[in-house]
Amino acid sequence: MDEPVLTYPVVKIQYEELDSFPLKYDEPFVLAVHWNGVPFEFLIRLRQTQHLIVLGSGAMEKPEPLPYFQRHSWMNEFEDSVIYYNDPTLYLADLPVGWGQGTIDRFYLEDIATLLDKLIAKANISRDHVLFYGSSAGGFMGLMLAGYLRGSTALVNSPQTSLTKWLDVPVRNVFRVSYPGYTFRQASVLHGERINVMKFYKKIKYVPKIYYLQNAACELDMSDHLIPFLSELAFMEPGSTVNPVIVDLYYDPQPGPASFPRIGGHGAVGKLETIDYIRRVRP
């Protein structure tokens, strides 16, 4: 079912105004923070609680107006505060997904983490009570953001853990926009910490607490993302902080497209199951 069109009030500020901006509670609104020419947009619904759920978006199945906040219609299902973030990479070209890659000079996911950290502090919420949720590309971004915001937790469903192991066409389209002039291999080597979750964790010597929800029937997810991700945990440097990684497998055979059957079963579990899972694992 299509989600309703965004009708939330929009507040536009400059980055320099964020520290003094008064947060609003109870009523949802879109906060657009303009930072050195880039709009970073957040759909926010704060409540007087000590817990926050941060949701990211996977790929758009059809063109949607930006900003794109997947699952925004779920907002009132949660008793906790919620923040959805848009990926500004989508403004750089006609892309259904951007994985927060940004530009050569600017990794948008890192900027999103900085802004979220400021918003979380303004709302007087401890990072220990923050849960990042996302599926597929949203799961990739959730894993990265939880690494930036130490103490937070990630709940991901069928995430990409290495973009070079995902579907060739959408990844190459993003790389052409984010890393122009670089070959696919050059971008993968020079910007590996942006592209591969475990390379990022090894760089920062930290693995956040992760709940990894995966359909074991999806061959591509299992062989190219989950298993390599878990295998690389053994090679974290001594002295690294490695929090628990809890893998929850389910089995739901689904046919993939005839041209690429290995992707069958990649979709996330349904709304009710996802909401129940978020409620059960949120710190």
Automatic annotation (TrEMBL):
SUPFAM superfamilies: alpha/beta-Hydrolases. Gene3D superfamilies: alpha/beta hydrolase. InterPro entries: AB_hydrolase_fold. This is Glycosyl transferase family 2. It comes from Alicyclobacillus cycloheptanicus.
